């Protein structure tokens, strides 16, 4: 017997008509994501149901849907859920957005919200199906059942506590601690006794936050996400404040708070195998003291290949690229345990496939200007932008640069901050952040005594410029270092943190928002460019930058404008 999904005739006809009308026009990766997400969720949830071919079960929780078994269930359900998501997305009278190359910020967030809702409803329905077809033991152990309920209640309480302490309702969707407590009480009253039901209930809880970026991760999903780390050896490094806020660990010795602390550790990673532990302070690497270095700088020091490990294959017009040629020698790391004990550890960096460069650049001899395209912020962004700037300015003599951030959807925020330091200096503010867990605003500044270059700079942006790109663009615009040219940016300024839960699952949670140096909230609003197209006259750019300096109080309106080489 071949399995089928049977829907009420009117509903099928409506969804099918909507799908045929719109899906053909939606040639956009986000819509492909819906189907993949739904299919993956359905497959995971159908595992372990152990339903035979001839079994038929009615899913009363989602209306008149009769489910007969077979692999076709997965594909059909994912197909109809995808069509329903498209119908919901376009219901608000926004069909024009479907034809756009980039979805607007509000539209894409709406789409993500639909995906989260579909995931949650699918989980709930299929978990209910699992409960229907699972035969309970006739001699069930009441004590064991109670223990299971208490264990699942502890996981719900863990999620409740993480959200209460850290979730930032940046978009003012009505979150309150009392309301969140009521949701927790309602979930706990169900007396959940298995992980599947609890995970489904947690997703329902998170859906009430109305935040498209907050989501629950299964143990497999969390494991896959945690494998991406900038250090390359499985370390999640942070400040002393990060350690205390995210883990509750407090060192048993006095410290000035500087340096890099091990906030998290990936199991079975090179760092874990070497004996590094959560709460360790990294004191030195190959006898280089780390007390004056930021966690990002320490991570870069760990993952950076040594000279004998790499060859520079090509640099110049077509960009920068390298290949790895040999295994790096082990690192000699001195750590300080949370108890104060110091240990020497040998840490082997695994050989990895080189990260592709996100940078390409070219030089226009006629205009004596350089062009740098930065497509994303991976671990090579700062290093490769620096090399491109040096080649264009120092070796080719460029007197102006154009940094192209169009279509750059972000990546590592830390790399965006480091790229900003190439063009800023003297304690310039790069970005501000407001976190739920901190009462004071966090300010990140440039610490370098002078920029790598002070030649004229322009930044190209559009609706695809998002997240780390907006942090970089906002820093250069607000510090009057460069005008923004193009279209309004995307508007993604929320901060997410990832928390590991006690059962190996995880939680991605919005914990704050980013502000530009002058206090503009990046999220949803985006950055407004100074020009819609490249100005024909240099005087127009000078005028914009001068007005910026007047607003910031760095010069007076009667002051003479700096020479072109210092703008």
Name its key features:
single chain; 567 residues; alpha+beta; 6-stranded antiparallel sheet; 5-stranded antiparallel sheet; 21 strands; 37% helix; 19% strand; disordered N terminus; disordered C terminus
Report on the structure:
With 567 residues, the protein is of the alpha+beta class. 37% of the residues lie in helices and 19% in strands. The chain has helices at residues 9-22, 29-46, 72-90, 105-133, 142-166, 177-188, 195-207, 219-226, 240-247, 270-274, 295-303, 381-395, 413-423, 468-478, 538-552, and strands at 5-6, 56-59, 65-68, 215-217, 235-238, 260-265, 281-285, 288-289, 310-314, 321-324, 331-336, 342-347, 359-364, 369-374, 400-404, 429-435, 442-445, 456-461, 484-486, 494-500, 506-515. Strands 5, 6, 7, 8, 11 and 12 form a six-stranded antiparallel sheet that branches. Strands 4, 16, 17, 20 and 21 form a five-stranded antiparallel sheet that branches. α12 (381-395) packs parallel to α13 (413-423). The protein starts with a strand and ends in a 15-residue tail after the last helix. The relative contact order is 0.08.
Give a quick precis of the structure.
It contains 15 helices and 21 strands.
**Average predicted local confidence, pLDDT:** 75
Q: Look at the helices and sheets and give the structural class.
A: alpha+beta
Distance between the termini: 74 Å
Low-confidence stretches: 1-34, 45-75, 89-102, 132-136, 306-326, 555-567
Categorize the overall geometry: globular
Write down how many β-strands occur, each being a DSSP E stretch of 2 or more residues.
Answer: 21
Sheet of most strands = 6 strands, antiparallel
Q: Tell me the helix content.
A: 25-40%
- Alpha carbon gyration radius: 27 Å
Count of individual helical segments: 15
Strand content: 15-25%
